[in-house]
Write a structure and sequence with these properties.
By secondary structure, the chain is mainly beta. It has a single domain (2-168), classed as Competence, DNA-entry nuclease inhibitor, ComJ (Substrate Binding Domain Of DNAk, Chain A, domain 1), CATH 2.60.34. Helices cover 13% and strands 42% of the residues. It is built from three helices and eleven strands, in the order ββαβββββββαββα. It has helices at 28-32, 120-126, 158-168, and strands at 2-11, 15-19, 40-41, 47-51, 57-66, 78-86, 90-95, 102-105, 109-118, 137-144, 151-154. The strands form two sheets. Strands 1-5-10-9-6-11 form a six-stranded mixed beta sheet, with no helix packed on it. A five-stranded antiparallel beta sheet has the order 3-4-2-7-8. β3 and β4 form a beta hairpin. The chain starts with a strand and ends in a 6-residue tail after the last helix.
Length: 174
């Protein structure tokens, strides 16, 4: 395992992102269209769109790269999986509306991402965290894998249920 990032990011509107090629246009709905899960949007080739329980403030995030599927860690409250392509050999962790982020080397290829959350409901009820210590924590585990449909592995909170329901109701414009 290689730890690519461990620290805090500032979220607004309960969002942060992993940019895959630097050209995301901000269209949230399109990131989730056709998915079952509403926590990690991977339908656009440019971005992983990550939802948090906290609306505004600091959340903790760890991003790990594995050689193979590390297995599900049931200690997390919420767990979803998506597939994505890493086209450039680098991904960038971005805060909401940020001009710059934290770049991380990631070999080009097809990946599976497991996005996990802890204390998402508590943070959602708090809404805004003005402290420097996170209330909710997230982990993004990545490994080389062929494309597969997204899935909800575990859901325990009403806020996660809300976002999953929202994603399932999305309809293509037009």
């Amino acid at each position: 395992m290689t730890e690519l990032f461990s620290g805090n990011v500032e979220v607004q509107y309960g969002q942060f992102y992993i940019e895959l090629d630097g050209s995301f246009d901000g269209a949230m709905d399109r990131c989730f269209l056709g998915q079952n899960n509403g926590l990690c949007g991977a339908q656009m080739p440019t971005i992983l769109f990550l939802m948090t329980g906290l609306h505004t403030g600091i959340v903790g995030i760890t991003i790990n790269l594995f050689d193979a599927d590390p297995g599900v860690d049931e200690s997390w409250d919420e767990i979803v999986e998506v597939s994505f392509q890493a086209p450039k050999g680098e991904i960038t962790l971005m805060e909401w509306a940020a001009d710059q982020g934290v770049g991380m080397a990631l070999p080009t290829g097809s990946y599976r991402a497991r996005y996990q959350a802890r204390a998402m409901q508590t943070a959602n009820e708090l809404n805004t965290n003005v402290n420097d210590s996170p209330v909710d924590y997230y982990r993004l585990d990545l490994w080389i894998a062929p494309p597969a449909p997204d899935c909800i592995v575990k859901q325990t909170s009403t806020v996660a249920a809300y976002w999953h329901d929202w994603a399932n109701k999305l309809v293509a414009a037009g």
